[in-house]
Amino acid sequence: MGKVLLTGTMRCEAHEIETVLALMAKHERLSQAEPGCLQFELWQDELDPCSFHVSEVFRSERDFEFHQDRTHSSDWGRVTRHMTRDFTKSEA
Description:
By secondary structure, this protein is of the alpha+beta class. It contains three helices and four strands, in the order βαββααβ. It has a single domain, classed as 2-Layer Sandwich (Alpha-Beta Plaits), CATH 3.30.70.100. The protein is 37% helix and 35% strand. Strands 2-3-1-4 form a four-stranded antiparallel sheet, with helices on one face. A hairpin with a 6-residue loop joins β2 and β3. The model has no long low-confidence stretch (mean pLDDT 97).
């Protein structure tokens, strides 16, 4: 099994932007430090401040699943779980 790639966009409501921004750097730092994380980038769209883009690459499906489990139980996961996501997952 190869690398796992995830790209896409998460959308929040305008009143949630500051909360997302307050948690974003920690979420990115923790994700980048995970075993098997080869790339993790998260950024706010310059034209649509309610949109946040992500690009992730993990060494294996197991590493990606670890990331998903950690994320769901984190502050980031609790605050953003209701937000709309349009992600594409693939293997390389």
